[in-house]
Specification:
Largest sheet: none
Number of helices: 4
Number of strands: 0
Order of helices and strands: HHHH
Radius of gyration: 20 Å
Strand content: under 5%
Structural class: mainly alpha
Helix content: 40-55%
Shape: flat
Length: 106
């Protein structure tokens, strides 16, 4: 059977796979039912934070004095990752672009 919801990015076997950005742009365009691609919009966004701020509260979480806090944060991250994979993504109200990459990243 022909499934119209499949990823249409594999139209040319000789072409390189689409970037995550282009996949996201296409998925977002389809999700929002837009006829105009996002490429021109995203290309115009600067990729550098021009207003870099330095805060006295800055901390290097990798320092040994933060080991206890780091352990708590890592445990919470693992719990949250598991919940996202096992519960959240199963909701019919959740749409993820590049789901395979998203799952691998978690």
């Amino acid at each position: 059977t022909n499934n119209n919801n499949t990823n249409n990015n594999n139209t040319n076997d000789d072409a390189s796979p689409p970037s995550r950005l282009s996949t996201f742009q296409t998925d977002l365009q389809h999700f929002l039912n837009l006829t105009t691609p996002f490429q021109t919009y995203f290309d115009s966004i600067p990729h550098v934070n021009k207003n870099r701020m330095h805060y006295p509260e800055y901390m290097d979480i990798c320092q040994s004095r933060y080991e206890g806090l780091r352990d708590v944060l890592v445990r919470q991250g693992e719990t949250t990752s598991e919940w996202i994979l096992q519960e959240f993504l199963k909701s019919e109200d959740v749409v993820v672009s590049g789901e395979e990459f998203f799952r691998e990243s978690l």
